[in-house]
Design brief:
This protein has 492 residues and is α+β, with helices and mostly antiparallel strands. It contains 15 helices and 18 strands. The longest helix has 21 residues. β8 and β9 form a beta hairpin. The N terminus is likely disordered. The structure holds flavin-adenine dinucleotide (FAD) and 2-acetamido-2-deoxy-beta-D-glucopyranose (NAG) (7 copies). Keywords: FAD, Flavoprotein, Oxidoreductase, Signal.
Length: 492
């Protein structure tokens, strides 16, 4: 899509020579907190260490992503978000924006400066005529599914309980419904965006095509999103649930995954497999999903026939299937994610992933690993066909049907952070080399920002789209306010 390069130059000009006082010391940040407190409406509040709100506001799924902010603020209106951003910019104060707080990367939604918690943006407004729903960016998917269930409709959202709508959507979003409808960003009809200069915009394809493109994958580079309008789809009973397997069954699970990916092309079917090591014991878990009250004969039979530890499979509501996975059992531990893209979940590749699960599970015995987890996420080769690179910042190319593979390690002590961080990098490199050796051309594949480890080069996420995103950012953020917060920062 063609975009005027002139906006880049205009952005630079307006960004120059603005007098900005730096607020880097604790005292200066405290002064910013006070200034915010006296400038916002009664719908919003500032909190300090010691209060329950402050504690909730800074808390993250992984404790390694939590930092001690100087204060937290819970804005209750878009106008107050604009006021807050303007103050943060004019005082040059570091800050963070938290949706569900599920990022495993420190500083992405945490800070020692001003923690913005979006928790009060919790409205859910279903528009039956348009088949859309407006959702606040302080929500988790559980809330959205529950609110829509009485209407018999659903959205393309998270696969396990507790994940935030905001970061998930702004980065991409892999769902059980992705084979049918695409990534979550492929189902977004609009955003309400508070820009870094304090404007409140209704961003749609027709009103702001540049920002619409940029926000579909561009995270917190363009301001703070307060509302997302998602397409809704009719949703009846689903079938499936959770199966857990002993380590001895996993080679057969690898075989069944290879067969499933080779043979099943029903877009209503989806699986999510995790090879886990807990105290050096390998355990498999598999969520199987069919968007209908029962699956066509045969498609999941191989998984059901492998000897398992537990099976919780039935015809049920979407919300019930969604809550079958106890994803929060590691909440509060330190954590790291890292990932790569593959082209095909063959039996051999799954077994190479099993080998990594066993190997690192063994290595981590002395480091008090709580969980070593490798997620195998097959989708149909058509998964990227529901959107286009012209209309979304991520993925940067839809030519190859790359599939995400995610590593998640959870552990107890910050003393071991570097060990797990390094291992997550080494293990990704090992699996990538194995995939290449098996003939999968994934050497130049982009990565998924919601699974990528801190330090991943920004170009690995946004690819050829980067220059265009830089120009859009220069235009919407002439004073580079969003550089005061962490995340996948697009420079300009
Ligand atoms: C247990 C678990 C399961 C997961 N399952 C899936 C899955 O099935 N599919 C999938 O695709 N991903 C999955 N993820 C990854 C998930 O997409 C990311 O963790 C994502 O960051 C979560 O969004 P959040 O709002 O909770 O995160 P946060 O940590 O709150 O935010 C993440 C980033 O988004 C930015 N951000 C948040 N809110 C706003 C806003 N209002 N405006 C602008 N920027 C904002 C933050 O500043 C930060 O940089 C999973 C993660 C976990 C921990
Ligand atoms: C703003 O603060 C950052 C550190 O957070 C500093 O590097 C930068 O120079 C400051 N800018 C101005 C204009 O004071
Ligand atoms: C939520 O909706 C109510 C009723 O329409 C409105 O008054 C309120 O401002 C909304 N809150 C947010 C945070 O959007
Ligand atoms: C996968 O398919 C092959 C070939 O049909 C078969 O031999 C094998 O048993 C299948 N795997 C499982 C776990 O059923
Ligand atoms: C794995 O598959 C083999 C060959 O089909 C079969 O003999 C064996 O019983 C299976 N093991 C488990 C644990 O299901
Ligand atoms: C199966 O999962 C549901 C949650 O979806 C739970 O309520 C139920 O107790 C589980 N059943 C068993 C046997 O564990
Ligand atoms: C996990 O979620 C359940 C249900 O919401 C809750 O009761 C439990 O306390 C949570 N556990 C952790 C460790 O957060
Ligand atoms: C298993 O993983 C280890 C550690 O990465 C590696 O050295 C070994 O070659 C792997 N074995 C197989 C069979 O892939």
């Amino acid at each position: 899509m063609a975009r005027p390069l002139a906006i880049f130059a205009v952005g630079l000009l307006t960004g120059l020579y603005l007098p900005v006082l730096a607020a880097t010391g604790t005292q200066a940040i405290s002064a910013t907190c006070s200034q915010i407190a006296s400038s916002i409406s009664s719908a919003s509040n500032v909190y300090y260490p010691g209060s329950t709100n402050y504690q909730d506001d800074i808390e993250h799924f992984s404790s390694s992503s939590t930092q001690q902010a100087t204060c937290s603020v819970e804005p209750g209106t878009a106008q107050d978000v604009a006021t807050i951003l303007t103050i943060l910019g004019s005082t040059n104060t570091t800050f963070a924006v938290k949706g569900g707080g599920h990022t495993a990367n420190p500083t992405f939604s945490s800070t020692t400066g001003v923690q913005i918690a979006m928790i009060r943006f919790n409205n859910i407004t279903y528009n039956a005529d348009a088949s859309t729903v407006d959702v606040g960016t302080g929500l988790i998917w559980d809330d959205v599914y529950e609110a829509l269930a009485p209407y018999g409709v659903n959205v393309v959202g998270g696969r396990v309980s507790g994940i935030g709508v905001a970061g998930f959507t702004l980065g991409g979003g892999y769902s059980f419904l992705t084979n049918q409808y695409g990534l979550t960003i492929d189902t977004v009809n609009g955003f309400e965006l508070v820009t870094p200069t304090g404007a409140i915009l209704d961003v749609t394809e027709s009103s702001h095509p540049d920002l619409m493109y940029a926000l579909k994958g561009g995270y917190n580079n363009f301001g703070i999103v307060t509302r997302i309008t998602l397409q809704t789809y009719s949703q009846g009973q689903v079938w499936g649930g959770l199966i857990t397997y002993p380590g001895s069954s996993i080679p057969n699970v690898s075989s069944a995954i290879g067969n499933f990916t080779a043979n099943v092309n029903d877009p209503k079917a989806a699986i999510l497999a995790s090879y886990n090591s807990i105290l050096d014991q390998v355990i498999g878990s598999l969520t199987i999903f069919y968007d209908g009250p029962s699956p066509p004969a045969g498609i999941f039979d191989e998984f059901l026939a492998i000897s398992s530890l537990t099976q919780n499979i039935s015809s049920r509501t979407f919300l019930d299937l969604f809550s079958v996975n106890p994803s929060n059992m590691t909440a509060g531990n330190r954590g790291v994610f890292n990932s790569l893209m593959v082209l095909d979940y063959t039996e051999d590749l799954c077994n190479a992933i099993l080998n990594q699960t066993q190997y690192w599970g063994g290595q981590f015995i002395s480091q008090a690993a709580v969980l070593v987890s490798y997620d195998i996420e097959p989708f149909l080769p058509t998964l990227f066909s529901h959107g286009s690179t012209a209309t979304s910042a991520w993925p940067p190319s839809r030519a190859q049907p790359y599939l995400p593979m995610n590593i998640y390690y959870a552990w107890e002590s910050s003393i071991n952070d570097q060990v797990f961080y390094s291992a997550a990098q080494e293990s990704v490199a090992t699996i990538k080399a194995a995939a290449v050796q098996m003939g999968q051309h994934v050497e130049g594949a982009f990565v998924y920002g919601n699974y990528a480890i801190s330090g991943t080069p920004i170009a690995d996420i946004f690819g050829d789209g980067l220059p265009e995103l830089e120009a859009i950012r220069a235009n919407v953020d002439p004073q580079n306010v969003m550089a005061l917060t962490g995340g996948w920062r697009i420079p300009w």
